[in-house]
Amino acid sequence: MRLTLISDLQSKPDLLAAFSLALRGRQKSGGPLSFWLREKQTASDELPIAELQSLAAEHEFRLETSWAHRRVAGLMPLHIPDRETARNKSRAFQGRRILSAHSLQQAELLLLENPSDEVLVSAWRAAISKQSSGATLNHAATLALARRFENRLHIVSGLRVEDYAELKDEPLASLAFCGSFTAEPKAFLKRLGYL
């Protein structure tokens, strides 16, 4: 299973420097790592794409981006929002698509209809950082779905550091963290065994 780190460069402008510093102590034994450049409100040409690509090559992690930055994505995995128009437009994308869903029923349907794509489903539990979180996922049903569609289901929102130890051996594509990671990148990666 992959660990996905979600960026928040708008409210944490020093995040990239802190992440870069933390990577110097990275142990590859921690497992595969992704960095999702999620900034939806930032213009693509203002993003530190070249710096992140250099870091990704040097420290062997996968760089991912959001639909809003599809013009600079190249073959980076592309996160597609939970909107039918975006899903339809993204079908022409040549790289890996990660489709967003907000229920297990929707996630299952997307997994069945798009066998070469992955699905990001939320919320594992109510997120502290979001004012209005919707319904949370049934944990047993989510893991059952992950076992049916091995390495194609990502979980996001409301994850805690403790969840990683509990879920790391499940056939999930990834666990995606934002708040825990952006608060203290080095301490977060250390607690999960990546440093």
Observed structural traits:
single chain; 195 residues; alpha/beta; eight-stranded parallel β-barrel; 8 strands; 33% helix
Summarize the structure in words.
This protein has 195 residues and is an alpha/beta fold. It has one domain: TIM Barrel (Alpha-Beta Barrel). It is 33% helix and 18% strand. It has eight helices and eight strands. An eight-stranded parallel β-barrel has the order 1-2-3-4-5-6-7-8. Strand 4, helix 3 and strand 5 form a beta-alpha-beta unit. The longest helix is centred in the first third of the chain and has 11 residues. The chain starts with a strand and ends with a helix. The relative contact order is 0.18.
- The count of β-strands is 8
* Structural domains: how many: 1
CATH topology: TIM Barrel
For the record, what CATH class applies? Alpha Beta
What is the CA-CA span between the terminal residues? 17 Å
Largest sheet: 8 strands, parallel, barrel
Q: For the CA atoms, what is the radius of gyration?
A: 16 Å
Mean pLDDT: 92
CATH superfamily placement = Aldolase class I
Q: What is the assembly state of the chains in this entry?
A: single chain
- Strand adjacency order, main sheet: 1-2-3-4-5-6-7-8
Instruction: Please state the structural category.
Output: alpha/beta
What is the helix fraction of residues, given as a range? 25-40%
User: Helix and strand string, N-terminal first?
Assistant: EHEHEEHEHEHEHEHH
CATH architecture annotation: Alpha-Beta Barrel
